[in-house]
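At this stage, I put together one protein's amino acid sequence and its backbone structure tokens, which the following lines show:
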Amino acid sequence: MQDLGTAFSLALGLILSGDDGLARIVGLSLRVSLTAVAIAALVGLPLGALLAVARFPGRQALVVALNALMGLPPVVAGLLIYLALSRSGPFGALGLLFTPTAMVIAQALLIAPILAALSRQVLEAMWDEYAEQLRSFGAGVWRAVPTLLWDGRFMLLTVLLAGFGRASAEVGAVMVVGGNIEGFTRVMTTAIALETSKGDLPLALALGVVLMAIVLGVNALAQGLRELAARRGA
């Protein structure tokens, strides 16, 4: 217990002192995850809105596929991207493997289906409520989609926060495509795994505390936005 207490004390010291190594890892983690969420949102949110509004052959199969992809194992996603970016892969000439860009691609691939599936559920309920009114104004599918995205922006922010929480906690895929290179592709989750295996508990605990603080903050913000959206809809 004394050793554990010492480790926690040293971890707190790293956080309060703004340790450079800790700050670099946290900064890279946030940049990668935020960039991945932004890219995934550009694909996932419009796709979710389109599925909420449009009815076309194959729609149900696409919905089922998105729901299934929400549970895509991260290491499988990492392996697919690794194969695509490796020297013998179709995009090997770009030299993206073991770079932060590859990590962004991996996280975006993982969370885009989550954003699409969750936004579809949110916007489908709104479409059921607003469909008749929008149709009376002559709004077709392509006008209804941006309208729903705008009117549901507060609820969709909670979807984005869920995606960010998923991205920031990811370890398998980013380990495979990033390589966990110190000072270059080492993020919080991969660093925690490495430092724990090395026995450097203070750094692992410090990163764990920061990661938990981020996750709790994201969840608190999401809850606040849900309550705000509920009050606005009341």
Summary: Residues 100-136 form the longest helix (37 residues). The chain is about 80% helix and 0% strand. The chain has a mean pLDDT of 87. The chain has one domain: 21-233.
